[in-house]
Structure formats: C-alpha cells, structure tokens
Specification:
It contains 6 helices and 8 strands; from the N terminus they run ββαααβββαβαββα. With 188 residues, the protein is an alpha+beta fold. It has a single domain, classed as 3-Layer(aba) Sandwich (Aminopeptidase). An 8-stranded mixed beta sheet has the order 1-2-3-4-5-6-8-7, with helices on one face. It is globular.
C-alpha cells in the first residue's frame, strides 16, 4: 500500500513499503540499473535488501510511485543530513527501466527538494553522480543543480576512469512546486 505524501505531475512520493524489498533486489542486481549508482559493485541479497529497506523506511526515504498506474518505479531520499549546518545529500534511482528518460526522475527530485528545503529546512542539497551517467546529469541540471566539484578519476569501470561529480542546489535557487502552494491555500 502506498500513501500520497507528496504529489507531483507524473509521480508521488510515499513512505517506503518494506514488502517491496524483492523488487529493489531485482533492480539493484540488474547491472544496467546499478551501473549508474554509487554502489554498483555490491552484491545485494534478499535478506540484505530487506534489512536496508527496513532501515531506510525509518528515515527520510520515499518510494517513487507512478500516479497513473499506482506502481513502484524507484526511490529517493536523504541518506546524509547535517541538521546543524542545513546540508543534506539526496539520492535517487528509477529502477523500472520503462520509466527512464520520461521526466519521472525530475518530478520526484522536485518533490524531494521541496520537502528538503521547506520541511527539513535545509540550506544546501547535494548529490553525487559519475561523469558517464549523462541522462542523470541532464536531469539534475534541468531541476537546477549545478556542478560544485569533481573527484577526478574516482571510478574505474570497463577499463576506463570517470569522475565523480558533486552537484548541489541552494534553497534560494529552488522554487517550491508543492509545499508552498499547500500552505498558501490553508489558513493556519
């Protein structure tokens, strides 16, 4: 069962459902999906993924659900949060390849940024991506992320070296798409 915590145009973010761990195992062990992630070299079993999903579901991590089909397509969340300085790392993946390059990542990321800036009160939200993941970099730029730095040659895959790119966005660079609209419609 999914709950519409944050609703976008194409998808909504729901608290994670622990019972979805087998779907995550399938996606994470698909090298085409995993190659774009920072943990592609890890072997993930059902038991390990269930533990991870149980752990993630207790923090600020969300399932990404297609609005029309009410179907799980990936997840997004904040694996690292520095509450003192207002800085958080966001992580996103669309595991269902049928949803790649169709705007779902952008939609989910906008919702997560809205939550991060307007509910968690972050000042800076950043992410990490490998230089070979051009579709992800394009998605992040469209949402407003800028390159903040690189770790040159940080990833060796298929005999080639690639940079790890750090991208970020500041709270005043992001226009709320959801939460400010809800608050402005209410008389609190």
């Amino acid at each position: 069962m999914y709950y519409k915590k944050l609703i976008g145009e194409k998808c909504y973010l729901s608290p994670m459902n622990v019972d979805d761990y087998e779907k995550y195992v399938e996606w994470i062990n698909d090298m085409e999906v995993a190659a774009g992630m920072l943990f592609a070299s890890q072997i993930v079993t059902k038991e390990r993924e269930k533990e991870l999903v149980e752990s993630f579901s207790k923090d600020y991590n969300f399932a990404i659900i297609d609005i029309k089909q009410d179907e799980l397509i990936g997840n997004i969340g904040f694996p690292k949060i520095d509450y003192i300085n207002g800085v958080a790392e966001v992580g996103l993946f669309i595991g269902n390849k049928e949803y790649w390059s169709k705007g779902y990542g952008q939609d989910a990321l906008k919702l997560a940024l809205d939550f991060g800036f307007n509910i968690l009160n972050m000042h800076n939200i950043y992410l990490r991506v490998y230089s070979y993941n051009k579709p992800a970099i394009s998605c992040y730029k469209k949402v407003g992320f800028k390159e903040a730095g690189r770790i040159r040659g940080a990833k060796k895959i298929a005999g080639e070296r690639y940079d790890e790119i750090i991208m970020d966005i500041l709270e005043d660079e992001y226009e709320s798409v959801y939460i400010k609209k809800i608050v402005s419609q209410k008389n609190f």
